[in-house]
Amino acid sequence: MKVQWPYDLKKEERYSFENGVHTLRVFSTDKPLKIGSPTRPRTEIRILGHDYSSGVWQFEGQAYVPSGTSGVCITQVFGASNQSTTLAVRVHGGNLTAYSTVIVPGISDRWFRLNVIHDVGAGKVFVHVDGALVYEGADHGGSSHYFKCGVYAQKDMSSYMESRWKEIQIFNKN
């Protein structure tokens, strides 16, 4: 895993790992991850050693998003043909969304198991929450992908954003 955080801060100001829980936080006024980047503030875990271009891949983690956190991407399948991501799982107004489509209302203030499956050959992505399929959609192409989780500010972001993660795993079926 590699942690990405605002370039002008120390990692421990936006990331901690205690008792098996990764806590990632960012403020809307934070800088991007590197000087000159046009992207919004983020503190994310980039999963290393599991980049892929074929097969069926799955991200699994237990997630917690406190109330008040909104306008934030908490999980990404990075890599696509004409945009950055094949899938962005977000929290907006207390609801879990796939991009802007609400897939689970009222997700804040509780732990939930998030599974994101990318079937590259079929061009499909699937999202399961607590074992239930809540989203199925087309991917966005691309030849190289990887998973990220944490907090990445989006449109209409709250002033403070946080997510917590534990038991993160990656699976593949080739």
Automatic annotation (TrEMBL):
**Record-linked InterPro entries:** Alginate_lyase_2, ConA-like_dom_sf
The record's section on SUPFAM superfamilies has: Concanavalin A-like lectins/glucanases (SSF49899)
Q: Where is the Alginate lyase domain?
A: 4-171
Q: One Pfam match, by short name? A: Alginate_lyase2
Question: Per its UniProt record, what PANTHER family does this chain match?
Answer: BINDING PROTEIN, PUTATIVE, EXPRESSED-RELATED, OS12G0171100 PROTEIN
* Protein name stated in the entry: Alginate lyase 2 domain-containing protein
What's the source species for this entry? Linum tenue
